[in-house]
Design a protein that fits this description.
CATH superfamily of the largest domain: HUPs
Distance between the termini: 56 Å
CATH class of the largest domain: Alpha Beta
Radius of gyration: 36 Å
Number of strands: 31
CATH topology of the largest domain: Rossmann fold
CATH architecture of the largest domain: 3-Layer(aba) Sandwich
Shape: elongated
Strand content: 15-25%
C-alpha cells in the first residue's frame, strides 16, 4: 500500500467513516459483555451544528470509543428532540412564505406540514455529527415524536394523573406572546433592564384630591381593579373606604388596605391588576376583586384597551405616556432598573397571564432525586462537584411544573372533554391513553351508555417538550411501554451523561426524577457538565456577535481530528472553553507530526541478520516505562473526567517522547538498515500509541493502523484491544530526564562553538551523580561523542552543569575569538535573564495562575526551568573562557 507523502484529512475521513458504518462497529445488541451506554442529549430537530455541539459530542465520542477499545459493549444512542416552540415557529414561518395562515388550517393539516418540514430538514444536525466522527449507533436513532416515544409520553401522563400528581388549574402563568404559549418557570430568563418608573395621578371619587401611583407598566392601567394602601400608613388613612378613578378608561375602583404594600417603594400605594401580576392576583382573590385581562395572545391590547386596541404593549406604553401627560395625570418619570422575564426560546418579554393549564405536582416526586445526588449514599455523581449546590438550590425550591403548551406540534394532552349537557352541570373531562378508552371512562363517569366518540373533544394543547425528553434514557429502550424488555434491563441505567450546565434542571434533574419514578433507580451514574464555548475575549459565542465560527468549515480547514484536538486541549470539566482557532491548527500540526513519524519508520530498510544495538534496547525499555506512566496518568484523568489532561498526556508522549526521542535513539545511520527486533518493537510501540490516541483522533489513527499492515475487518483499530496498565520502572524515567539535560548541554556547546555534528568530540564528567550513566551510549549516539570519561579534576573547554555534575567538552581555542565569544555569551545571558523575568512575572500573577488551563501553567513552569538551566550553562561557559 503506497503511503502518501502528506496526510490529507479530506481524503481519509469519509472513507473510514463509511468503513466503520458498513461493518457495523457502532451497532450494539445485548450480549455477555459489560455494557457501556451513553444517550445523546437530543439536539433540537431545528438545529445545525455549532461549537457547543462540537465540544459536547467530541467528549461523548472519546468516552464511547475508549469503552469500545476496553472491550465493553459500547452503545451510544443518538436522536433529536421535537422542540415544540422552535419547530412550530419554523413551520409557521414557512407557511407564511407560501401565503398560508396557521389559523386557517386544521390541526391535522398543520401537523402534515410540520412532519413534511421535519422529514426535509430535521436530520441535518445528525448528518453533521457524522463529519465530526461521532460513532453513534445510528440504527437506534430516536425522535421524541416517534410513535413509540409518543405512546410512552401519553402513558406516563395518564399514570401520573391517575396517581393524583397531574391536575388542571386556573393559574397565573408565564405567557410567551411570540410563541403564543405558556412556559414553565425554568424557561424564563430574568435579565436586568433599564426602564422607567411612571408616577400617575388617580382622582379620588367625589373629591379634588389625587393619589399618585408608581408603576413600570403604565399600559396595564386598563386592567386596574383596585388601589391598595398599607393600613399602617398614616399618609393615606383618610382614604380608607373611598374610591378612585382610573385615568383614560375612567373606571371607578375601590381603595383597599393590605399589609402587602411596601410603604417605602414608590409612593407607598399600589395599583392592583389581578390579571397581569402574580402578587396582584393573590391580592385580588383575597379581596374579591374583578379580574380584567387586557391582552390578546400576541400581547396586543384587546377591547379593554379602548382606542389602543390592536396595538402592541410597548407601542402603547410610549403612546399612553403622552396621553397621560396631556391629561395632566403624569406627574413625572424616573429611570428604574428592574428584572424582566424573557423567554428562553424566543427572547420575547414574558407576560404574566391567568390561564387554565395542566400542572405536575413536584414536591414528593423530587425527593428520591435529591437523595440520589446529595444524600449520604448518593448514586449519581455530578462533575464538577461545584454544581451540587446549584442542583440543591433548584430542587429544594421546586414548584409545580406547568406541562401544557398552546401548540400543535407535540404530544396532544390526553384529556377528553364533554359539555355540561352530558355531565349534568359544568364541563367535565376524563384522561385516557386514547379516545376509545376515554369513551369507556366517560360512560362510567356520566352513567350514560349512549355516548359516542363524537361527544368527546380532546384537549387542544400539547405537552411541554421536556415532558418527552425527561423519559429519554428509558424511552429510547422502550422501558415505559415494555418495562421488562431485554434492552432496558441490559442498557439501563446508562453510564455517563455529557451535557451543559444550562439544562441541569430542565433535563438532567427531571430525568433523575423520572428514573426513580418509573424504574426505581438512577438513569445514569455520572453527569459530566461541560463549560460554555467562548471566544478569546471570554464572550459567549453567538450569531448576533458574529464570533461563532462555522463548525463545518473548521472541519474542512483542519480536519475533524484537528478540530477535536483543538477543542479538547482547552476544555477543562465545567470550565468555559476559550476557543482559539490556532488550537485547531495545533491539532492539524500534531496529525502531520504523527504521519511523518510513521512515514519515517516505514521508510527504514530491515535486515533480519543484524543484531539489536544496545542503544535501541535501552531506548525501548525507557519508552515502555514512559508509555505505562502516561497510560496510568490517562486512567486517572479519565476517572475524573479530565479529558483535556488525558489528551495532553498522550500528546506529550507522542510529540516529545516518541517522535523527538525514541525515534532518534533507534533510527539507523544514514542509508543503513535497521535490525528486525528493533523494527518490530517500534511498530508495536506505534500501534499502542495509536490505540490510546484513537478516541481523540479516530480518523488519523485508523488510517495509519491500516497502512502498517493488511488488516481484516476484525482487526480494525476501532475494535482493537486497549493496552493494559502494568507496573513500570520510574527510575529509568528519572535517569533519562537527567540524560536529556546532558544531551541538551552538549548540543548547545556544538551550536555555540560551531562544531559540526560529524566532528567527534569527547565529554568529561566531574561529579558523583551517575543517574545518566545507563544512557551513556544513547548520549554518545545522539550527540556524536566519541568517549565519555568520569574524572576528578576540571579540564579546559566549554562546560555546563546538570544538578551537581559538571560536564566539559575540550575545545580548540586556536580558531576562537575569545573576546567576541564573551560578548556573544553576555548578550545571550542578558536575553535569557530578561526572558526569565517575564516568565516569573507571569507565574507570580495570581489571576493568571488561577484562570489559565493547567497545561498552560505546566508549560510556563517548564519555560522557567529551561531558562534557569540555560543561564547556569552560559555562566559556566563564561567562567571557562
Amino acid at each position: 500500500m503506497t503511503i502518501p507523502s502528506k496526510y490529507d484529512a479530506s481524503q481519509v475521513e469519509s472513507k473510514w467513516y463509511q468503513y466503520w458504518t458498513e461493518h457495523q462497529y457502532f451497532h450494539s445488541t445485548p450480549d455477555e459483555r459489560e455494557p457501556y451506554t451513553i444517550v445523546i442529549p437530543p439536539p433540537n430537530v431545528t438545529g445545525v451544528l455549532h461549537m457547543g455541539h462540537m465540544l459536547n459530542n467530541t467528549i461523548q465520542d472519546v468516552l464511547i470509543r475508549r469503552a469500545r477499545l476496553l472491550g465493553k459493549n459500547a452503545c451510544w444512542v443518538p436522536g433529536t428532540d421535537h422542540a415544540s416552540i422552535a419547530t412550530e415557529a419554523k413551520v409557521v414561518a414557512k407557511l407564511k412564505e407560501q401565503g398560508i395562515n396557521k389559523n386557517d388550517l386544521t390541526r391535522e393539516e398543520f401537523l402534515a406540514h410540520a412532519w413534511e418540514w421535519k422529514n426535509e430538514y430535521g436530520g441535518i444536525i445528525l448528518e453533521q455529527l457524522k463529519k465530526l466522527g461521532a460513532s453513534c449507533d445510528w440504527d437506534r436513532t430516536a425522535f421524541t415524536m416517534d410513535s413509540a416515544m409518543s405512546e410512552s409520553v401519553i402513558k406516563v401522563f395518564v399514570d401520573l394523573y391517575n396517581k393524583g400528581l397531574i391536575y388542571r388549574g386556573f393559574r397565573m402563568v408565564n405567557w410567551d406572546p411570540e410563541a403564543k404559549t405558556t412556559l414553565s418557570d425554568e424557561e424564563v430568563v430574568y435579565e436586568e433592564k433599564q426602564g422607567n418608573l411612571y408616577f400617575i395621578n388617580y382622582k379620588i371619587l367625589d373629591s379634588q384630591e389625587t393619589l399618585t401611583i408608581a408603576t413600570t407598566r403604565p399600559e396595564t392601567i386598563f386592567g386596574d381593579t383596585a388601589i391598595c394602601i398599607n393600613p399602617t400608613d398614616e399618609r393615606f388613612s383618610h382614604l380608607k373606604g373611598k374610591k378612585a378613578i382610573v385615568p383614560i378608561c375612567n373606571r371607578i375602583i375601590p381603595i383597599i388596605e393590605d399589609e402587602y404594600v411596601d410603604v417605602e417603594f414608590g409612593t407607598g400605594c399600589l395599583k392592583v391588576t389581578p390579571a397581569h401580576d402574580v402578587n396582584d392576583k393573590t391580592l385580588g382573590e383575597k379581596h374579591h376583586l374583578e379580574v380584567i385581562d387586557i391582552f390578546n395572545d400576541d400581547a396586543t391590547l384587546n377591547s379593554f384597551g379602548l382606542h389602543y386596541q390592536g396595538k402592541d404593549r410597548f407601542v402603547v406604553r410610549k403612546e399612553i405616556t403622552k396621553e397621560l401627560e396631556n391629561l395632566g395625570c403624569l406627574l413625572k418619570t424616573e429611570q428604574h432598573i428592574n428584572k424582566v422575564g424573557t423567554s428562553e426560546r424566543t427572547k420575547a418579554v414574558i407576560e404574566p397571564r391567568l390561564s387554565d393549564q395542566w400542572f405536575l405536582k413536584m414536591e414528593n416526586l423530587v425527593k428520591p432525586a435529591i437523595d440520589a445526588v446529595l444524600g449520604e449514599n448518593s448514586e449519581i455523581n455530578l462533575v464538577p462537584k461545584k454544581f451540587d449546590n446549584t442542583y440543591r438550590h433548584w430542587m429544594e425550591n421546586i414548584r409545580d411544573w406547568n406541562i401544557s403548551r398552546q401548540l400543535w406540534w407535540g404530544q396532544q394532552i390526553p384529556a377528553y372533554y364533554f359539555g355540561p349537557e352530558i355531565s349534568g352541570g359544568k364541563e367535565d373531562f376524563v384522561v385516557a391513553e386514547n379516545i376509545e378508552k376515554a369513551l369507556e371512562l366517560a360512560k362510567l363517569k356520566t352513567n350514560n351508555q349512549q355516548l359516542t366518540t363524537k361527544d368527546l373533544q380532546q384537549d387542544n394543547d400539547a405537552l411541554d417538550t421536556w415532558f418527552s425528553s425527561w423519559l429519554w434514557p428509558i424511552s429510547v429502550f422502550d422501558g415505559i411501554r415494555n418495562p421488562e424488555n431485554e434492552e432496558i434491563n441490559y442498557y439501563y441505567p446508562t453510564n455517563d451523561l455529557v451535557t451543559g450546565p444550562d439544562i441541569l434542571f430542565f433535563w438532567v434533574a427531571r430525568m433523575i426524577i423520572a428514573g426513580y419514578e418509573y424504574r426505581g433507580e438512577k438513569p445514569f451514574q455520572n453527569v459530566y457538565l461541560t463549560g460554555l464555548v467562548r471566544d478569546k475575549q471570554r464572550r459567549k459565542m453567538s450569531k448576533s456577535l458574529g464570533n461563532s465560527p462555522d463548525a463545518l468549515k473548521l472541519i474542512d480547514d483542519y480536519g475533524a481530528d484537528g478540530v477535536r484536538v483543538g477543542l479538547l486541549l482547552s476544555s477543562a470539566a465545567g470550565n468555559d472553553l476559550m476557543f482559539d482557532e490556532e488550537l485547531c491548527q495545533q491539532g492539524k500540526a500534531f496529525a502531520n507530526k504523527i504521519w511523518n513519524a510513521f512515514r519515517l519508520i516505514k521508510g527504514w530498510e530491515i535486515d533480519d541478520n543484524l543484531a539489536q544495538p544496545n542503544t535501541a534496547k535501552i531506548g525501548l525499555e525507557w519508552y515502555e516505562a514512559k508509555f505505562q506512566k502516561a497510560l496510568s496518568e490517562m486512567e486517572d484523568h479519565f476517572s475524573k473526567y479530565r479529558l483535556s489532561d488525558a489528551l495532553m498526556s498522550v500528546y506529550k508522549l507522542i510529540m516529545d517522547d516518541f517522535s523527538s526521542w525514541l525515534l532518534e535513539i533507534v533510527k539507523p545511520a544514514y542509508q543503513q538498515p535497521i535490525d528486525k527486533i528493533t523494527f518490530d518493537k517500534v511498530i508495536e510501540v506505534l500501534e499502542n500509541n495509536l490505540k490510546i490516541l484513537h478516541p481523540f483522533m479516530p480518523f488519523l489513527t485508523e488510517e495509519i493502523w491500516q497502512h502498517i499492515t493488511e488488516r481484516t475487518p476484525e482487526e480494525a483499530l476501532i475494535i482493537a484491544k486497549y493496552p493494559i496498565i502494568k507496573e513500570y520502572n520510574s527510575e529509568i524515567i528519572t535517569d533519562f530526564d537527567f540524560a536529556t539535560n546532558i544531551i541538551s548541554g552538549i548540543r548547545t556547546i556544538r551550536k555555540e562553538q560551531n562544531i559540526a555534528f560529524k566532528d567527534d568530540i569527547e565529554l568529561f564528567v566531574i561529579g558523583n551523580e551517575n543517574n545518566a550513566a545507563f544512557f551513556d551510549e544513547i548520549i554518545q549516539k545522539l550527540t556524536n561523542i566519541s568517549e565519555i570519561q568520569y574524572i576528578s579534576e576540571k579540564v579546559e573547554g566549554a562546560s555546563f552543569r546538570v544538578k551537581s555534575n559538571e560536564y566539559f567538552v575540550p575545545i580548540s581555542n586556536s580558531n576562537i575569538d575569545i573576546a567576541a565569544e564573551k560578548v556573544k555569551l553576555q548578550e545571550e545571558l542578558k536575553r535569557a535573564e530578561g526572558f526569565l523575568v517575564g516568565v516569573q512575572k507571569k507565574l507570580s500573577n495570581e489571576r493568571f495562575v488561577s484562570s489559565a488551563p493547567e497545561e498552560v501553567i505546566v508549560l510556563e513552569r517548564k519555560k522557567e526551568a529551561d531558562a534557569l538551566a540555560k543561564i547556569d550553562m552560559i555562566k559556566s561557559s563564561l567562567s571557562n573562557l
